Amino acid sequence: MRNDDKTDERKWWKHAVIYQIYPRSFADSNGDGIGDLQGIIEKLDYLETLGIDAIWLSPVCKSPQDDNGYDISDYRDIDPMFGTLADMEGLIREAEKHHIRIIMDLVLNHSSDEHYWFQEAKKSRENSYHDYYVWRDGVEGAYPNDMRAAFGGSAWEWVPEVQQYYFHQFSTKQPDLNWENPKLRQEIYDMINWWIEKGVGGFRLDVIDQIAKEPDQKITNNGPRLHEYLRELSKETFQKADLVTVGEAWGATTELAKLYSNPDNSELSMVFQFEHICLDQIEGKEKWDLAPLPFMKLKEVFRRWQMELYGKGWNSLFWNNHDLPRIVSRWGNDGQYRVESAKMLAILLHGLQGTPYIYQGEELGMTNVQYEIEDYRDIETLNLYQERLEKGYSKEEIMRSIYAKSRDNARTPMQWNDGENAGFTKGTPWLKINPNYKEIHAEGQIGDENSIFSCYQKLIWLRKEYPVFVDGDFRMLLENDENVFAYTRTNTDSRLLVICNFYDTTVSYSLEEDVSDMELLVSNYQDADQTGVLRPYEARMYWKQKDRE
Ligand code: TEU
Ligand code: CA
Description:
Elements (H helix, E strand, L loop, with lengths): L17 E4 L15 H6 L1 H7 L3 E4 L3 E2 L11 E5 L6 H13 L3 E6 L9 H6 L13 E3 L18 E4 L4 E4 L14 H16 L4 E4 L20 H11 L7 E5 L5 H7 L9 E3 L22 H15 L6 E2 L9 H4 L7 H13 L4 E5 L19 H12 L4 H11 L2 H4 L40 H14 L2 H4 L1 E5 L6 E7 L3 E8 L5 E2 L10 E5 L9 E2 L4 E7 L4
Parallel strand pairs: 1-2, 1-13, 2-5, 5-9, 9-10, 10-11, 12-13
Antiparallel strand pairs: 3-4, 6-8, 7-8, 14-15, 15-16, 16-20, 17-19, 18-20
Helix pairs in contact: 7-8, 10-14, 11-12
Calcium ion binds next to loops.
């Protein structure tokens, strides 16, 4: 394996596959209808069988749950809904026995309005916590400016006691923290170090590119002091241990990603960037304003991120998370070709350079849902529905957007078996189970070599066996082909070749590359010996020892 100082391939997280758990929807151990930490502990065998190296756990800290835990009221305690601090310590310990690290979700851009800091901050302008948040003078009824919050409405909220507005980029119950205040920053570092002491394997940093906001200039992400803050944060905390850190950065470009994920370790291990994710919406509008996926653009985006970060940074690879619709419904086919397309998307992504993330249920090919509006629970979805009704959109039109993009698509409970409530809970699930759980569930896939689960298992194993997954360079093939996504990954002694048909028709293609002397590592059709033709969603991954030049 190549190992110059610029690209340190020894880092564990460059070989790792990370699995995201949305705790409230994963496994409920006590029948209250909500997933919890004991539930996760019970499923560690399942995760070890899948082969993943780490769990990114969406927030489990104390929270009024206005935004499902992304509104934290105590960073050093666990929400009783999920268990206790002892359960969390138990999870870290038990996971370790399964060779799995726990990555916590740090929500540092904002806290809950029920956090002690905010309770104090809103008492008076003289309170020592007042400056932990972002306040502006104003007159009641006249906002400091016209900035809007991500979940609808103004980004400003009036507090009569202090005769000021506080700034919130998300809900009114998520006041933004003031990173300009060094005391606040120090509190955050102490809290992170406290978790590091407990043995966590890393952190995912929620909307990290929004911490350096400058509301007077209407700047939300990529504020002028952002990278200064990140370098300080990293130095005071992460650099003291062998951690993986991944920042959520909707505003990242490849140039910025090279700063964030600089191999010198001065900021983070990598960022989640969303350029590919935002392609199927009308440009300049919101995600709800649907547009077909421009496939050529998708290829261009992947090519650019692969090429530009090579040796200079590190990519995260993902199709899904708790905010995004299910990929098989989105860019695959959740009908006739559900199995084939889910595997194709997996093969396409897992051959790339970076750290792959699997979102719970993705390894089973779980799909989107279409519920009545009453059955949705997500604050963003519910606010959008009201807001667009008021703006005069038709119900049908709004529901079409919700079916395609609602965050609840990803949040329906995990489908473990075909029994009551899909084996998720013995009580009433907090969000309805996807009605297709009788056909799509873990129990039916484990041990079946043709299942989507087995395909993911294979891909995870391959990444550990073949160094080229980690260090190979990327070359896009068939750049102008409107159906096929094909590429090679090459290192000093071997080559990987991935060919995927992104659509539901049979297509032919011609490659210079001769695959006759290559080993077929994984594919999604049982008889994958045809060359030059790809059946619907057909995907193949080949490997060979390189000819010596
Ligand atoms: O999401 C960041 C964010 O910008 C989201 O509002 C995103 O635009 C939206 O979900 C896409 O539909 C993070 C978390 O992942 C999300 O769950 C939280 O709600 C949000 O931050 C606030 O903490
Ligand atoms: Ca529970």
